[in-house]
Structure formats: C-alpha cells, structure tokens
Amino acid sequence: MIARVCVAGAGVIGSLFAGHLARVAEVSVLTRRAEHADALTEHGLTVSGRSDFIARVHAAPDPAALPEPDLVIVACKGTDLEPVSARLEGRFAGAVVMTIQNGLGAEEIVRRHGAWPLVSGVTFMSGTRHTDTHVEYILDTATWVGPYGDTDFALAEEIAELIRASGLKAEAFPDLRPAQWSKLIFNATVNAVAALTGLPHDPHFAAEERLSDLGFLVHDLIDEGKRVAAAAGIELREDPWEMNVLATKRGSAHYPSMLEDVEAHRPTEIELITGALVRAAREHGVEAPLHTALYRLVTAREAGYS
Amino acid sequence: MRVCVVGCGAVGSLFAANLSLLEDVEVWAYDLAQAHVDAINESGLRLSGAGEVVGHPRATSDAAELPPCDFGIVATKAMHTESAIAATAHAFAGGAVCTVQNGVGNEEVLAAHVDRVIRGTTFPAGRVVEPGHVQWDVRGDTTIGPFEPQPAPMDEIERLADACTRAGMPTEAVPDARGAQWRKVIFNAATNPIGALTRLTHGRVCELPPLRLLVTQLVDEGKAVASAQGIVLDADPEELIDHAAKPEVAYDHRSSMLQDVLAGRPTEVDWLNGGIVRYGEQVGVPTPMNRAIWALVKGLEQ
Q1: A262 to chain B: nearest residue by CA?
Q2: CB contact under 8 A, A217 and B291
Q3: Which of B198, B204, B270 is opposite residue A297, by nearest beta carbon?
Q4: Which chain A residues are within 8 Å of B208, Cβ to Cβ?
Q5: Is A306's Cβ below 8 Å from some Cβ in B?
C-alpha cells in the first residue's frame, strides 16, 4: 500500500501532484532551492482553479531530510532529470519511481541511478504556477501510467487508483507506449513549431488553406512522426493531429513550455522530445527530415543564447 | 537619359546617389518616406562607408510629379512592388523598368503595369542610417537582362548597364539574367530564414554543422527548381554562402529577415522560399524543406 509519496521537482505538474496527493497520502517534496522548501513547509501548498485547498507537505532540498517514501514521482523538467536522479541515487531503496516527463527516455535516465521498480507516466493535465506555494489547476485532463520494464502492472494500477482518489484523473495501461508516442509526436510537433514561430498553440496550427499555412507543416510533421511510430511497431493510442485540432479549439491558447524556455533563454526539452523521435527514426530506418530540421533549428536557437 | 529609382531605401539610394553624379543622367527618386524625401531635396543623398558620395537626385513622394522617364529601377521590398509600380507606371509609358529587388516574381508584377521589363539582380547592400544618409556596407555587381515574356531590347538594357557602371555600380547586361537571379534567391532563401528562426548571424549559421546541412538541403531544392526551368546558375550558391561566412565579409551580419522579424515587420519570405515553392510546383519539383521554412517564417510574422 502506498502511504508515503515523495514528489521530486515542484514545478506545475509536481505541485499539482503534491497538493492533490497530500489529501490521500503523506507527501514530501524534494525541491532544488532551500527557500522553496522552507516556504512549502511553512505555508503549505495552495491549489486553486479546478481544486481549492491548502495542502500540508514536508519539503526539503536534500532527500536525506525526507521520510522514506513508497512512491517517488520524478516531476522535474526533462532538462533537470539527470541531476535530480543523481540526488536520488542510493536512497529510497524500497520505493517505486514514476517518471512523468515529456518525450521519451526519462526511464532510462532514472534507471542509470538506481534499481527501483519504474513506472512510466504521461500527463495531459495543466496549470499555472503563481508562486512557490500556489499552483492553479487549469486543465483536468488525465494522467496515464503503465509499468516500465519488469514492473508489475498491479503497481501501475495502484498508483492510478491513488491519483484518482486524490482528485486528479488517471488511468493505468499494461503498455503505456501507445499513449507515450501519441504525446511524443504531438509535443515534438507543437512545442518545436511554437518555439520557432513564437506562436502559442493557437488556430494557426490547424490552418490548411493557403500554401504557406502552418497547419500543412504541422500535419506533415505529425505524419512523419506517425511513420516513425509505425516503424517502431507502436500503434498510437490517439491521433496526434486530432489532439492538435482539439487543443487549438479550446479558446485560450496554451504557451508550450518550449516556447517559454526559448524566450527566457533556458535549456529546452528538445533532446527528450524531438531528439528522441529523430533518434528513433534513425534506429528504425525511416526518414524524418522535417523533425530533423526542427531539431537543428531549436538546438541552434539554444546555442545562440547570449 | 532620365532614370527614376522607385523605392529609395538602402539599395535604391545606392543607385540614385551614384547615378545622379553622371552629367548625362537626370535622376528622380520616388519614395513614400517623406522625411527621407525632404532630406534628399534639402541637402542631397549621402552615402558613406564603401564609398563617400553626395548625390542630388530629385526626390518626391508624389508619383504625379514624375516626368516621363527612359528607365525605372525598382528597389522596393518585394511586398511593395505592386503598389509602387501601380503609382508610377505612367512615368514609364515610353521607357523600360528594371527590378533590382530580392526574390522571384517581381518581374511578373511589373509586367502587368509596364510594357518593357528588365530582370535584375544586385549584390551591393547598405542600410538607411537617417533620412538622407545611407551606410554603404558592401560593394557588389549587378546583372540585368530581358524579362522574356515582355523584354526590353538588348541595346536598351546595355544603355542602362553602361550608365550604372560609369556611375560606380558595376552592371553587366546579359541575354539571360535568370542564372544570377536564382543564385541570389537560393542564397537568400537558404540563409536569411535560418538566421531569422535561430536569431544567429550568417557566420554562426554556417559554423554549426547540423545547421549548415539544413542550409544545403534548402540550396539543393532551389537548384533542382532552377534546373527544371532550364536555368543555368552563374555560380554555385554554396560558394557565396561560404564566402559570406568569412569574418571579413559578413560573419556578423544579421540577415534583413532577422532584422525584419525583430522589428515586427513583414519579411520577403513569400518571394524567397515561397517563390521557390511556387516555381517548384509549376515544374513538378518537390520542395518540402523550403515549404516548411516558409511556413515557420510566416508563423513568425504573426
């Protein structure tokens, strides 16, 4: 039974998990900054929007200061996964570790730092982090979890059950890859195009009228991604083009994190997302010229940060 | 000989100021920027940098003031060709009009308004520093030739080339100027948008090997489209790209497209990558990478 959860990384997704799960489990939060941990321990974590409560959490920047958890949710950005995993190395031997990063390959990075049973996660929920101790829950879309490697499916089911009990949406699948790849193709396309054009994920991404309309490029990128998935033997759970069209019709345009990252001159998740897709294409012998071009452009944009 | 430069930005000013030094050429400069026009009429058109010149063309923002001219030299940004030639065409009823603009498709626009059209490509570059004053960054050659559907005769084209050359703007009249035009279009389409999308200078674009590969993919598509039209490039655009990347040439140059994007202005991408895509469709040559880059830059313009 999962009684204690440690959330590593308290950005939007980590804060949403920590706040909600604190209602059904004892939650600790591993932060990067000491003042962030102090603020959380002192004031608790306020969740507004679709939920409305203040959660009590125990936070620290050092895992040695946190109680032994049954479940660790590594919720940091993909760019921080390596250092965060390194800090977990040699600790929490009895815990299951769940990844939730965008793209592919997060599990392998965590695996290099410990032998914990691993569970893969993909989340579609979203929010806005207003302060270190206040997160707004905006889109109540689901989190999907599935066993990674030798992990028992029952563990993934138990985690999904716990997340549901906390007030978030979740579902467990014996094989998460069809969902992971649907989101991979969606993110590789939408995040990179947003980062390069400066556009939020708005109706331009679905426009297919004039020859130069962005929707044609988005469509071509998604089709290219689907060919890679097919070559990798993955049957997608959702059609990324339909995900794209649906998301552009929501009214308020979403700012993909990769766009926010390039505007703030921060490292992006391009390696875990587009990089993973391009490497998979090469591995399976299919061409991915358009995603390769986006990969080159975004990495070059990062190289130009002054 | 009377010449009117239509669009007196940096490149137009280089032609207008230099040509106005010739005793046998009367130069008019048509531009909508009233401050620039006023400054030229008050104290002349000054070039500095690659050449120190003060020319005295007659400048106006009112096309109705233009007298009948022997030649027009159109140097507006490509998106302004239609409005500029529509306003000034009356002055060229008995003359020939030459474009020295970027991209492909400008000649077709001119041909809808005037009888005789000269295809042209120019490499000198500069920037307007203040009204009446243009920094001349780079000297370079100009190549002009007949626009086949509505050509000016070769002797007329040679007269214009001779005047420009005597004025210090070396210009060659050739029977087929498409080779020079497509070399420059391919160069611009392969490098300017990459600079705009990555925010990198030309030299930085060229020294990142993966990005340089992307540039070559764009070049190769452009070459295929040119070749399918029977166009023989006057030189390899790749040479121009590597030449421009040298520290003493244009390593630190931020492409005009990058400058446009940073300033929130529309870009010339429709006449560069967009032109390659449209001509590619006409001759059945696929141009997926130019089309992708075109869409990204159009997104950037929003």
Answers
A1: B198
A2: yes
A3: B198
A4: 300, 303
A5: no
Q: Do residues A221 and A188 lie in contact, with contact meaning Cβ atoms separated by under 8 Å?
A: yes
> CB distance from A264 to chain B under 8 Å?
no
Residues B233, B167: contact at Cβ < 8 Å? no
Contact B292 A217 (CB under 8 A): yes
Please give the ipTM for the structure prediction.
Answer: 0.91
CB B14 within 8 A of CB B38: no
What spatial distance separates the first Cα and last Cα of chain B, rounded to whole Å? Answer: 44
Task: Tell me which residue has tokens 């699948």.
Answer: A173
Which residues of B fall within a CB distance of 8 Å from A193? Answer: 296, 299
- How does DSSP classify residue A275? I
pLDDT at B259: 86
Cβ partners under 8 Å of residue A218, min gap 6: A189, A190, A193, A205, A206, A241, A244
Q: Is A279 helix (H, G, I), strand (E, B) or coil?
A: helix
**Backbone dihedral region of B67: left (phi > 0), alpha (psi from -120 to 50 degrees) or beta?**
beta
| Residue at A216: amino acid letter | F
* Phi, psi torsion values for B105, nearest 5 degrees: 110, -10
- Global pTM value: 0.92
* Residue A125 to chain B, least CA–CA distance (Å): 27
* Residue among A125, A124, A24, A112 at smallest CA distance from A71: A24
Query: Is there a catalytic annotation at residue B298?
Result: no
What are the pLDDT digits (tens) for A134-177?
Answer: 999 998 999 999 999 999 999 999 999 999 999 999 999 999 99
Each residue of B208-241: pLDDT tens digit?
A: 999 999 999 999 999 999 999 999 999 999 999 9
